[in-house]
Amino acid sequence: MSESRTPEYPINPVFLQRWSPRAFNSETISDQALFSLFEAARWAPSGNNSQPWRFIYFKPDSANWQQVVELTNDNNRRWASNAGALLLLLSKTSHVRAGDTEPSPLRNHSLDAGAAWASLSLQAVHDGLITHAIGGFDREKARELLQIPEGYHIEIFIAVGKQAHRDSLPPDLHAREQPTPRKPVQEFVARDGFGFAG
Ligand SMILES: Cc1cc2nc3c(=O)[nH]c(=O)nc-3n(C[C@H](O)[C@H](O)[C@H](O)COP(=O)(O)O)c2cc1C
Fold this sequence. Notes:
This protein is α+β, with helices and mostly antiparallel strands. The chain contains six helices and six strands, in the order H-H-E-H-H-E-E-E-H-E-H-E. The strands form two sheets. It has a four-stranded antiparallel sheet with strand order 1-2-6-5, sandwiched between helices. Flavin mononucleotide binds at residues 19-20, 76, 133-136, 156, 179-180. Flavin mononucleotide is lined by residues 19-20, 76, 133-136, 156, 179-180.
């Protein structure tokens, strides 16, 4: 596995240090630590500098924590319930451009939210925290429970916390508790035109 995590070209080590463990130690994350992550997200690039990302955060002492955890699907809930915080990432789908009075659609709202999530996850590495994105949850129920208005796309949950030993996970998750490899750069970069096999 360590071989497959060797970069082909020089990079900042933080990119390799970030991965998505499932073993969280259930210690609550302070607001101070969380807001450093949001601060990192804040500086992400976005179309027209529209900054369409929105984060709603929940902690184990939130009144609705259990209901929020139950939005995640069965498989994810087994480990996400031990996170120190759960963040729901939304993106605003329209924006009033400078000089306009009416909002226009933001074509890149999800792309921009993705950039914010990437920044947040790398800051977490720097701060000794782990993150794990969760796409497997009931979006309709989330919209209803949290009264999320139309015009906000529900992207992902992000589990944040401190890492625990993988033995704390249910046995069937032990083997998956390790960093994953990546495709070679040649497979996703082409010069001067579309040159991809798949
Ligand atoms: C948008 C998105 C949704 C994801 N949803 C889930 C999920 O529902 N459950 C899960 O266990 N992992 C989920 N993941 C984690 C990915 O499986 C993981 O990022 C990928 O396998 C690469 O591994 P790494 O993050 O450890 O480098 C998700 C990741 C992203 C970016």
